[in-house]
Amino acid sequence: MNNTGRRGRERAATDQDIRRTARALLVEQGPEAVTLRAIARELGITAPALYRYYGSRDDLIEHLRADVVADLAAGLAEDIAQLPDEGALQLFAICKGFRRWALTHTKEFTLVFASPAGDDTLSRLGEPFGRIFLAAAGRVLAMHDLVTPSNDVVPAELRDDLTSFQGELLAVLEESGETFPLDKLDLGVTYLMIQFWARLYGHVTLEVFGNYPIPFSKPDVLFDAMLADLAREIGLSID
């Protein structure tokens, strides 16, 4: 065995140790606890040694965030693999799975979705969660005649931003391998997708942090009612 191969495996194993330790600190104590110094202390090494692998804490956090997103997407993919190949059924199952994950992985949710270090997921369309969410949305658009806003109702001040986002959406949907009528993704539909995500994300975030305006004894019912409202507004039924 040559020394290069041995060093490569040692480096990979050390990198796995760093990420595993960072994930444990995240889950146990939250994003603020994930520091190079804390990881080094847990591993029994010096903090400068970590710079062989990560140039800064932000660099490590970005890799950790990517690991969390990949695990979330893998779990959701496993969930919908058990369902019929029907866009609406899968899309709303993803919404429910996202909420379930957020409520049981609050520290990881905070890192990815609710901290300055993380961006809005739909602005990272090429990432696993963005791809699985948008692939299901694309199947809904392809398989159903939805009630969607006309281009005329989109505020003029938002059109340039939505046009840029529309281009990114099309690229991801085409890469998903789905047969998708590109003419269906006009500015009105793009506007609708942003609003859909905002309502889903807003509801889940309020619930995760206990900031809903009033306490509900049956929060599952409230969430399901919100999804039913979203579906009904675009001409779908998820009963």
From TrEMBL:
DNA-binding region, as residue ranges, is located at: 35-54
Q: Where is each HTH tetR-type domain found? A: 12-72
The domain of life for this entry's organism is Bacteria
Entry's Gene Ontology molecular function annotations: DNA-binding transcription factor activity; transcription cis-regulatory region binding
Alphabetic keyword roster: DNA-binding, Transcription, Transcription regulation
Alphabetized PROSITE patterns for the sequence = HTH_TETR_2
SUPFAM superfamilies annotated for this entry? Homeodomain-like, Tetracyclin repressor-like, C-terminal domain
Name by which UniProt lists this protein: TetR family transcriptional regulator
